[in-house]
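Action item from last meeting closed. Structure (211 res):
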């Protein structure tokens, strides 16, 4: 395995796997505990809405981009991080990686798309309330970490999610999605030195285009 820090300050790790499938993940060290004065649930809402369009791709293009390659794209939010990840054939790993960086650095958060996704998140909150195990766990964490950011539910509440605006999403990302808070990992059947060189180039391109 090779690892290091790019000149932009982003940590990375690459590993040769010997498999025909490659795995990429971009982890941003900002989750529910980092929401501060923002409405509760904004980190999770960002994770949902960054898929709704970038400077170069519409939501429809994003949703079908890796499908056409036979790959998979997904994301999740925890109390401490947002993770974007993709699984593709090894020859397509760089396409998947570029898409992950594009989502993290060039999402536009279109107003219309955000309203659509707000409904999805509100339905998700209701479904959690209807699941006793999930509801009990959220309540337990709320009591355990009462008064601490870790006590905030990842999804937020219906009231807090309704307060989130497109401008808040853009500001949150501008403040939190910085190279120093990111880690990029790739596992693919490629020479690690060559893979590392390509990753560093990809990182440099991603942040030069986002400025």
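Sequence:
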């Amino acid at each position: 395995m090779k690892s290091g820090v790019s000149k932009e300050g982003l940590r990375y790790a690459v590993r040769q796997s010997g498999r025909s499938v490659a795995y990429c993940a971009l982890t941003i060290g900002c989750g529910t505990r980092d929401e501060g004065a923002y409405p509760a649930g904004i980190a999770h809402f960002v994770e949902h809405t960054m898929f709704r369009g970038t400077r170069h791709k519409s939501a429809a293009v994003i949703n079908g981009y890796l499908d056409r390659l036979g790959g998979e794209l997904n994301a999740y939010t925890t109390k401490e991080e947002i993770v974007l990840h993709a699984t593709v054939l090894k020859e397509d790993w760089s396409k998947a990686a570029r898409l992950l960086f594009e989502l993290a650095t060039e999402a536009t958060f279109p107003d219309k798309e955000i309203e659509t996704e707000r409904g999805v998140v509100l339905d998700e909150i209701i479904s959690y309330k209807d699941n006793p195990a999930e509801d009990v766990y959220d309540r337990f964490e709320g009591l355990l970490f009462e008064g601490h950011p870790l006590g905030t539910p990842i999804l937020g509440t219906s009231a807090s999610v309704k307060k989130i605006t497109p401008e808040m999403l853009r500001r949150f990302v501008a403040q939190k999605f910085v190279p120093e808070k990111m880690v990029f990992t790739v596992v693919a059947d490629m020479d690690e030195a060559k893979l590392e060189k390509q990753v560093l180039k990809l990182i440099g391109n991603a942040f030069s285009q986002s400025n």
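Note appended to the action item: The domain at 2-206 is CATH 3.30.830.10 (Cytochrome Bc1 Complex; Chain A, domain 1).
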